[in-house]
Amino acid sequence: MDDDGANDGDSGAAAHPLAREQAHLTASRAALRAMREDVEALDIRDVTANWVNAIVLQAQIDDRIKALADLAHTPLFFGRLNYLHAPGAELAEGAEGEQFYIGRRHVHDADGDPMVIDWRAPVSQPFYRASKNDPQDIALRRRFGYTGGELTAYEDEHLSDPSEAAAVSKLLQQEIERPRVGPMRDIVATIQPEQDEIVRSGLSGSVCVQGGPGTGKTAVGLHRVAYLLYAHRERLARTGTLVIGPNRSFLHYIEQVLPALGELEVKQATVEDLVARDGLEIRGADTAATAVVKGDARMAEVLRRAVRSHVTPPAEPLMVVRGSRRWRVPAYELEEIVAELQDRDIRYGAARDALPQRIAHTVLVRMEQAGEAPDDRVQDAVARSAAVKAAVKAMWPAVEPAKLVLRLLSDARFLAEHAAGVLSEEEQALLLWAKPFRSVKSAKWSAADLVLIDEAADLVERTHSLGHVVLDEAQDLSPMQYRAVGRRCTTGSATVLGDLAQGTTPWATRSWDEALSHLGKAEAVLEELTAGFRVPREVIAYASRLLPSISPGLAPVSSVRETPGSLVVAPAVEPSELTAAVVGACRDSLRHEGSIGLIAADARVPELARALEEAGMAYLSPGEETTAFSRLTLVPASLAKGLEYDYVVLDEPAAIVSGEPDERTGLRRLYVCLTRAVSGLTLLHADPLPAELV
Ligand SMILES: Nc1ncnc2c1ncn2[C@@H]1O[C@H](COP(=O)(O)OP(=O)(O)OP(=O)(O)O)[C@@H](O)[C@H]1O
């Protein structure tokens, strides 16, 4: 057999393929070390003009050194491709094939020849996409297996050999099934073809991915950012990228993935972070009914009208005095200027800034007509004169966004004036505070209020737009929140990830078309992921019983994990015995390798926390990293979304359902909780299980 035929064997013989691959790994590591040493040896004393430059340059060098680190437990390369012909070369008869090792980052030798190719490079793409049906000029695809940082196995596919049957890769399966501990990790070695298409889709277009639990949406979103930064590094360094997730614990859970891929610059935030304003804290909460109205896209029209209502046509002519002369601009001319600015598609604040010069220009025209020869300085002086300033203030006063929203929520007449024909009287009543607040500072703003203020702020002054935004768990956003995210990528593109069946807010997304239009990305391409990488087949089948009630029409996930015995539904116990039974189930689960999540209705969490403490079992909060000391996390149902654990113990499903304002939301919350397990789910209950599950 040749180089590519044999599989495992002893690495003693230098000629053995495995030994040769190990030697390439050793050489690549040495080359990476040399690259790092080159950077470390840079002496910037002579090239920087001042200390600011020096600090900036040194920071860049430090980042580069960090990026060149060789992490002992992350394989430097995980695959190899042998092309039939040299890629890019004319596919002429006799053109030579080439061989590439695919890894997390580019490594070259002292001559600059590549030893490892970045997974994001175009030549790496067939590693993810080529198949027997479409070999993409690949003769051999080799996957490497590692044990504790050592290269110990490999597996070959001869994609262009018609005599070899297509087979499921064992190494791939093992990698997918590796137990989970700690934060989320990257999936560069095993990105699937349908995922890769999303990861590598172009920067100019937006993509929306509908996918059931565990289909890799979050993973795909993060790898897409890494890919875009590789393919469009300069542009995105200028314009910026952002990943938006539902809450802090989720962001903690995913925050390691991009740095592990060498990308340190990507910001992560919640929607609340985006709309946060200095000096305004969230101290209030809305009822569901009020929050629904505040999150409705029609609020944008109410705000638009309210902002524009500040423009008042002039009642009197304007008189500007210069030296011994007085210049008069009649009211109708001022009105024309105002009308012209109102018709233009510019922000309220920008129009206000333009107004003094417009008025001054009119005065200048008059001066010229009278035979004077005023220059730009005269125009500036007129624009800055007290008379013009006063006129501008009267016609186009400054609008403070928070004050405007304060007034809308406190002043029934002001609200009615701008909501007439847009919101019903009942809806207006829901918006008004029972006891109005006096000032922006003392008001108990809710999360939805800050989104309204953000919308108002954008009417006054254009929000800064980024180059690319990834929006995860999008299904929970209100239309007004979609707008808030959308204005942060007006000039860029977006990747929207979500699952309609996991929407647990009263305003949850009903259709992606609708959501994308609120986001301002109606042209986004809708993709669907259906292969599940997290939840074992038995467990996802059980959870999918809820689908007809929570999201009719959505196809169930088909799991790639065959784990017999992964689902245990314990018989009902007496209510007084439930907590003890749950603690016992946690103890049993801890006998397995990996992380354990105890998920319970929020209201049950304090009691379970006490019981765990009494039993002497240490536990973590969601998003906290598992340690040698504790692998058990106590998860309130409201924070379970997006997270995963090897083994999940699920406490009292009926309480999770009844913990939500309505039954559909309750069942959706339960669906989220049922789909967090990678290897096993144990369900304990005293109350009857929801009928939909039985
Ligand atoms: N191609 C893959 N190879 C290996 N593991 C994968 C692959 N795709 C996804 N996974 C793993 O499957 C798990 C679920 O992925 P992820 O959290 O991205 O799913 P999701 O669709 O966002 O789920 P949810 O809807 O529950 O938030 C993660 O552990 C992820 O690393």
TrEMBL record:
A GO CC term assigned to this protein in UniProt: cytosol
Annotated organism of origin: Streptomyces roseus
Record PROSITE patterns: UVRD_HELICASE_ATP_BIND
Coiled coil start-end: none
GO biological process annotation, one example: recombinational repair
PANTHER family with a match to the protein in the record: DNA 3'-5' HELICASE (PTHR11070:SF45), UVRD / RECB / PCRA DNA HELICASE FAMILY MEMBER (PTHR11070)
Descriptive protein name: ATPase AAA
Residues binding ATP, per UniProt: 211-218
GO molecular function, one term: 3'-5' DNA helicase activity
InterPro entries: DNA_helicase_UvrD/REP, P-loop_NTPase, UvrD-like_ATP-bd
Keywords: ATP-binding, Helicase, Hydrolase, Nucleotide-binding
Domain UvrD-like helicase ATP-binding as annotated: residue spans: 190-545
